[in-house]
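JOB MANIFEST
job_type = single_chain_structure
chain_count = 1
residues = 277
[input]
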Amino acid sequence: MTKAKNEISSLRTVRTFLKVGTCSETLCNVLDRAFDHPLRPEEHASLPFAGGIMRHGYQCGLIWGATLAAGARAYRLFGPGAEAETKAIIAAARLVQSFRARNSNINCLEITDLDRSSTTMQMITYFLIKGGSIGCFRMAARYAPIALNEINTALSEGDVEAPGHPVGCAAMLAQRMGSSDMHTAMAAGFAGGIGLSGGACGALGAAIWLLGIEDGVEKVEFESPKALAAVDRFMKCTDYEFECSEIVGRKFESVSDHAEFLSDGGCSHILKVLAAE
């Protein structure tokens, strides 16, 4: 397998962060370019992941952005279908583990003490007075080269036994929304709360991201009406639970475990409302 041609420098990551403005788009951007394959619409559509899904405080946007880049790389290496989607989930699991190992928590709320309930003064205090922006820049600069290595390692490992479709909830939702094979593979790693970690629902994340792509580069908003409507439908369907492990009552042990759960009808009601069927 051909690895990324370029390394990711701290300066390059910080410059990108300053340019694009969000952690999620920053990681997707610098990783895609390290793999020599920019995807501007897909990268910009990751904007709502900043703040842990539209400032709800769940998984850090760095993880969401890196997971999208991993899925894009898997698609280019393995083509459409179950193998690429399985590899994307495995890479996402490594990305979550490496992030948690270096930051103790994976959720934005635990890292910043901020979510959508925070006041303007709390935001100002964290980002301007306490230097929170600098902290986020440093975190992105440290994590980007680690994420690049984790993706390369995960995708270069030996053959994996890919289950039959559906491989994961996020990929299944993408297919139901009529997405391309590439977008399906890119979203695949979100399965089970990103890499089966049990965090905020990956199918919800996929829906928000895909709706952003539909809006187009010039119209992507942090909280677009379509994304807000999807979140509202999701919350009503899950009794206002966001996290996969809370919704299904457990974490998935493997890609096959998750695929079997879906084949048995698991989360079908959630996928239906997110796809607005």
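[summary]
The first helix runs from residue 10 to 20.
The CA atoms of residues 26 and 105 lie 20 Å apart.
exit_status = 0
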